[in-house]
Specification:
alpha/beta; Ribosomal Protein L4, Chain: A; 2 domains; elongated
C-alpha cells in the first residue's frame, strides 16, 4: 500500500510503500482495549498506604489496669477502636503490573495504526527538521498544515534540539520515540505525525 509523503510546508514529496500487515489490517478493537487497559494499569505507582496498629507510634504501655474501672479492657492506646489508632485492612503498597503478551501488544499497535490510516489521521513527513527553535514559528507551520489546536503525537527517531524546544511549551504536541511507542501513545491523539524513518522502525518492529 502507498502512503503520501509531505514536507512541513504542505507540499507533496512523493509516496512510500508501507507494509499492509502493519498499516492495512482489519483493526481488532478488543485487543486494543486490553492493551490500553494494561498500559494504564502499569502506570499506577501502587504506593498508597496506611498505618496499621503495628506501624502507629506510641501505645507501648497499657493505658489502665485490666479490671476495676468498669470499662472495657485495653492493652494499647493505638488499638483500631481508639482515636489515633491503627487502620484495619487499610490500603497497602503493592504492584499493579499487568503483563500483556508480545503478540497482543503488536496486534494492538498494528490495529491502531491501520485505523489511523483508514481515517486519514496518519500523516507521513519527509522529516521534522526545522530552522527555528521558537514556538511561534512552529505554530505557523501547524497553521499552514491545518493542524492548529489539534492533539498531535509526533513519532520520531532522532529529536533535534530545535524541534524539542519548539514543541516544549505546546500542551497538545507530544514527541515520542518510534521504537518505544505504546498503544496508548498511538490512540491518544487526533493526528499521528510520522517521519519516514519512523515508518521503517515501526515496520521492522511490528511486521508479521
Amino acid at each position: 500500500m502507498k502512503l503520501d509523503i509531505q514536507t512541513l510546508d504542505g507540499s507533496k514529496a512523493g509516496d512510500l510503500s508501507a507494509d499492509k500487515s502493519v498499516f492495512g489490517i482489519e483493526p481488532n478493537h478488543a485487543v486494543v482495549r486490553q492493551a490500553v487497559l494494561a498500559e494504564m494499569t502499569n502506570m499506577r505507582q501502587g504506593t498508597h498506604a496506611s498505618k496499621n496498629r503495628a506501624s502507629v507510634s506510641g501505645g507501648g504501655k497499657k493505658p489502665f489496669k485490666q479490671k476495676g474501672r468498669g470499662v472495657a479492657r485495653a492493652g494499647t492506646i493505638r488499638s483500631p477502636l481508639w482515636k489515633g489508632g491503627g487502620t484495619v485492612f487499610g490500603p497497602e503498597p503493592h504492584s499493579y503490573n499487568h503483563k500483556l503478551s508480545k503478540k497482543m501488544s503488536k496486534l494492538a499497535r498494528r490495529s491502531v495504526l491501520s485505523n489511523k490510516v483508514s481515517d486519514g489521521a496518519l500523516l507521513v513527513f519527509e522529516n521534522f527538521e526545522i530552522d527555528s527553535h521558537k514556538t511561534a514559528d512552529f505554530i505557523k507551520i501547524l497553521n499552514s498544515l491545518n493542524l492548529l489546536n489539534k492533539k498531535i503525537t509526533m513519532l520520531v527517531t532522532n529529536v533535534s534540539e530545535n524541534l524539542d524546544k519548539a514543541v516544549r511549551n505546546l500542551r497538545d504536541i507530544y514527541l515520542v520515540d518510534a521504537a518505544k511507542v505504546s498503544t496508548y501513545d498511538l490512540i491518544d491523539c487526533e493526528i499521528l505525525a510520522v517521519d519516514k524513518e519512523s515508518i521503517e522502525v515501526l515496520t521492522s518492529i511490528l511486521k508479521v
